[in-house]
Amino acid sequence: DIQMTQSPSSLSASVGDRVTITCRASQSISSYLNWYQQKPGKAPKLLIYAASSLQSGVPSRFSGSGSGTDFTLTISSLQPEDFATYYCQQSYSTPRSFGQGTKLEIK
Amino acid sequence: QVQLVQSGAEVKKPGASVKVSCKASGYTFTSYGISWVRQAPGQGLEWMGWISAYNGNTNYAQKLQGRVTMTTDTSTSTAYMELRSLRSDDTAVYYCARDNSLLDLRWFDPWGQGTLVTVSS
């Protein structure tokens, strides 16, 4: 099974900050990497698919990059509604594993 | 709009079974698969498995093999997930999600609202 490891596990930042979250796969997964945002009590929401493709309706301040084993999610200028937990997920093989999550909190 | 609506919360005793439904609307049901993902309280996301709404093919997470069954009813555009021999560590919110694909790329969007299953004696 492919293990996905996110860093950091939690992060404090301020509105307007640029934030980067990293996801590392235990083996190469090409560009088979997705990013989701989850707010408390809500279902996850797709942000980025195929490592760098922005889902329709998602603000352009979100971007994804990487291939192989190392990936990043960047929020260029944090907005109040961006404070949430973020998960990466690989779709290279089953089981389609998720990272453990990165909780983004207000500083 | 594309929407997945799940059945309501359940409370079950250890050893019992639960069946969660996920009704799709706003798209051609048989053109996509459905994945199921669960989230234990305060924990991360765990993929449980996938079913093709086109032909019923399934792919289950190995740790749930033998306890989980995923089915679809194309006449009502509804997917079902049944989990048997429930244990306390099956307590979680269960989500269905439409399984999108482009060539070999796959992603989950949208998601249902979630169904809380509580296993307690």
Can you give a write-up of this model?
The complex is a heterodimer of chains A (107) and B (121). Chain A has 107 residues and is mainly beta. Chain A contains no helices and ten strands. In chain A, the strands form two sheets. A six-stranded mixed beta sheet of chain A has the order 2-10-9-4-5-6, with no helix packed on it. Chain A has a four-stranded antiparallel beta sheet with strand order 1-3-8-7, with no helix packed on it. In chain A, a hairpin with a 2-residue loop joins strand 7 and strand 8 (70-75). Chain A starts with a strand and ends with a strand. Chain B contains no helices and eleven strands. Chain B is mostly beta strands. Helix content of chain B is 0%, strand content 55%. Chain B is globular and about 45 Å long.
In short:
The complex is a heterodimer of chains A (107) and B (121). Chain A is mainly beta and 107 residues long. Chain A has strands at residues 4-7, 10-13, 19-25, 33-38, 45-49, 53-54, 62-67, 70-75, 85-90, 102-106.
Keywords:
heterodimer, A: 107 residues, mainly beta, six-stranded mixed sheet, four-stranded antiparallel sheet, 10 strands, 48% strand, globular, B: 121 residues, seven-stranded mixed sheet, 11 strands
Q: Assign an overall shape of chain A.
A: globular
Distance between the termini of chain B: 40 Å
SS elements, strand count of chain B: 11
**Could you spell the SSE succession of chain A in H and E letters?**
EEEEEEEEEE
Low-confidence runs of at least 5 consecutive residues of chain A: none
**Count of DSSP-assigned helices of chain B:** 0
Report the average pLDDT across residues of chain B. Answer: 97
Q: In which range does the helix fraction of chain B lie?
A: under 10%
| End-to-end Cα distance of chain A | 36 Å
Kindly state the mean pLDDT of chain A as a whole number?
97
Q: How many distinct beta strands of chain A?
A: 10
* Strands side by side in the biggest sheet of chain A: 2-10-9-4-5-6
Q: How many helix segments of chain A?
A: 0
For the largest beta-sheet of chain A, the strand count, sense and barrel status come to:
6 strands, mixed
**How large is the share of residues in beta strands of chain A?**
over 45%
Poorly predicted regions of chain B:
none
Kindly estimate the percentage of residues of chain B that lie in beta strands according to DSSP: over 45%
